[in-house]
Amino acid sequence: MDKLTIRDIDVAGKTVLVRVDFNVPRDKDTGEITDDNRVVAALPTINYLLDHNPKAVVLFSHLGKIKKEEDKAKNDMAVVAPKLAELLGRDVKFVNATRGAELEEAVKNAENGQVILVQNTRYEAGETKNDPELGAYWASLGDVFVEDAFGSVHRAHASTVGIAAHLPAVAGFLVEKEIAYIGKAVSDPERPLVAILGGSKVSSKIGVIENLLNIADKIIIGGGMCYTFAKAQGHTVGSSLVEEDKVDLAKSFIEKGGDKLILPIDSVVSSKFGEDGDIKVVGEDVPEGYMGLDIGPKTVELFAKELEGAKTVIWNGPMGVFEMPKFAEGTKAVCSMLANLKGANTIIGGGDSAAAVKQLGFADKVSHISTGGGASLEYMEGKVLPGIAAINDK
Ligand code: ADP
Ligand code: MG
């Protein structure tokens, strides 16, 4: 990796500012954290820093969206402090402010690696605008900056790039891992590189398809988006999800992709969007009154054959409506194919894809599940992510 990481710097006696991703899901009624995965994922970086005798570790994160003043109470970072203290097994000082005397005093008086959690960065209107004054102010509180919020590196905000402009900036372990897997897969993959793309819409994946058409050896298409491709090929699609305004684009992808592009040859269809419809397997044409909700068994066989010998696999987008067990078989089959590929780097990006792999019980059978939904998609599009660009090169 060509970026500096926390292993490359000396933090002894220093105040380390860390951008973490503590944007945790919470119960609508009680406000309690419903899944502490993101806090757990930040622990290796925080613990590593604490093991190297810093003066203080100051943690910054956003939580939820703040559009109006009333949103602040709903997205109070205070909820994370006790959870973090419990997981770290040490005291966490929560500062209910994003600037001012209370924050400055807390940082100045910290000693022996005091962990300080700052209030939600989005309480500051300048955060999402990358207000230079805000980035400079936060940077003035510390000596070095650690970027570890992979889920936010696609956003040029004050806490993700503004601070980094004023301090030595290095990657934490989470960001390092994402660069090692996704960055390598799209810039210097071991071949053959096979991309599997699915999910609901072509429109949300145009950039990913375009980039992967250039770099992958094969592209396998499934999920709801395959019916826009089926329509482009002249097949009937019934009431399947089709984006009419993307049919021409699908046509151009088919032309450009040639033999590289592998499309489904059968589907599991239903007379309604639910498991209580009339469900059957059909070939390439979906009959009137039915919608395609999963890839069919012949397609599963085809995809398995196409995946043979792959050394790198990038997967984004479920093969069917995996949330309903009757339409989860295609996604499950692809999970098993990846689990059984020998010596291959298997990388999952996208929020729903990550959820599918976990829900179907394959989380520990793939090489890497990205922690950033939108960030992983943009990374797969080959875009420069501002939060990664902000990290100092080796
Ligand atoms: P990701 O979040 O991994 O990028 P997407 O958001 O693009 O993935 O797509 C995930 C959604 O696509 C899932 O909710 C799934 O139910 C839906 N989906 C998959 N196949 C179909 C289909 N044939 N018809 C309708 N929706 C589908
Ligand atoms: Mg999604």
> What kind of sheet is the major sheet?
6 strands, parallel
CATH class of the largest domain: Alpha Beta
Q: Which structural class do you get from the secondary structure elements?
A: alpha/beta
- Please list the strands of the largest sheet in the order they lie side by side: 3-4-2-1-5-6
Termini gap: 8 Å
Bound molecules: adenosine-5'-diphosphate, magnesium ion
Q: Please tell me the overall pLDDT.
A: 96
**SSE string:** EHEHHEHEHEHEHEHEHHEEEEHEHEHEHH
How many distinct beta strands? 15
Evaluate the radius of gyration.
23 Å
Shape type: elongated
- Helix tally? 15
CATH superfamily of the largest domain: Phosphoglycerate kinase, N-terminal domain
In the CATH hierarchy, the third-tier topology of the largest domain is known as Rossmann fold
InterPro entries: Phosphoglycerate_kinase, Phosphoglycerate_kinase_CS, Phosphoglycerate_kinase_N, Phosphoglycerate_kinase_sf
Pathway: Carbohydrate degradation; glycolysis; pyruvate from D-glyceraldehyde 3-phosphate: step 2/5
Family: Belongs to the phosphoglycerate kinase family.
Protein name: Phosphoglycerate kinase
